[in-house]
Amino acid sequence: MAVDRSDPRPLHRQVAQSLRQQILGHDLPPGAPLPSEAELCAAFGVGRSVVRQAVAGLAADGLVIRRQGRPTLVASPAEYRRLVQRATGLSDQFAVAGQELRTVVRSLRPDSPPPRAQAFLHTADALRLERLRLVAGDPLAYVRTWLPAAKVPGLRDEDLTDASLHRLLTRNYGLRPVSGRRQVRAVAADDMLAEALRTEPGGPLLMLEGETTDQHGNALEWFTTWHRADRVVFDIDVSETSETVRLSPLDAAGAEAPGPAPETPGTAPPAPADLDRARELADELRRLLG
Q1: CA–CA distances in Å: residue 26 to residues 23, 32, 44, 61, 288
Q2: How many other C-beta atoms can be found within 10 angstroms of the C-beta atom of residue 235?
Q3: Given Cys at both, which of 67, 95, 146, 218 links 113, Cβ 3.0 to 4.6 Å?
């Protein structure tokens, strides 16, 4: 557990990162006391000032609770839930739950989308929208959205401050998001995302990537949302008449292998083995993400 003195990062950041990983991994569960300063000094081979800086950083991030004259405790993080398989965005899902979601627009500018987004949108003439989503001042997610420029003439960043993109598309442009595909991956935070989401570079994030079509079946948006893994939990619905979770294996090159053909009206419901697999996958995702 000792710090690596050849590492260019400050010692207190190394200590904080190690403790952060123990907290997020529940090696130090919510409500548990943090080891004493003396114990941390001995474990990491550092002085008290380094330990105090590290603990202060954890407290600023809401991971621990410091109390005068009493042990420092691991905090119980607030968890915010979203349904992966709903076409509705974060704003609508949080509104239903009675939670106020703030939106800070980082940028809105013309740009050429990446190949997968361009293939879905059928155009290279797109707008790149970057937003930070917060609850009670706490950053939860960073969203990058690609929109066909021709479909949203006159769109301004001020229109989207503390506002829902989906509601604006419906109200101002008559484009109602109704369906699409979603994928969830575990990724590491780069420097930009770590700064925006107030987490450590290399820390765990949950990336939700997807495409959305409008009520006419036309491409409307391509988006990538990075969520703080210690703040957001994904809920997944599984029923006996539809399989809302699908596991697509990756081939040796990292590409997604072809999945089973989608179910069509009038076909038989999934076999019991498929339902069992869906339930197992849902349980596994809840364990990993929650």
Answers
A1: 5, 10, 19, 16, 12
A2: 16
A3: 146
Q: 193: how many CB neighbours lie within 10 A of its CB?
A: 19
The rounded distance, in Å, linking the Cα atoms of 5 and 111 is: 43
**Predicted model pTM:** 0.57
Taking CA atoms, 47 is separated from 29, 54, 84, 230, in Å, by 25, 11, 45, 29
Query: What tens digit of pLDDT does each residue of 267-281 get?
Result: 444 444 545 555 555
pLDDT in tens, 248-274: 444 434 444 444 333 334 444 444 454
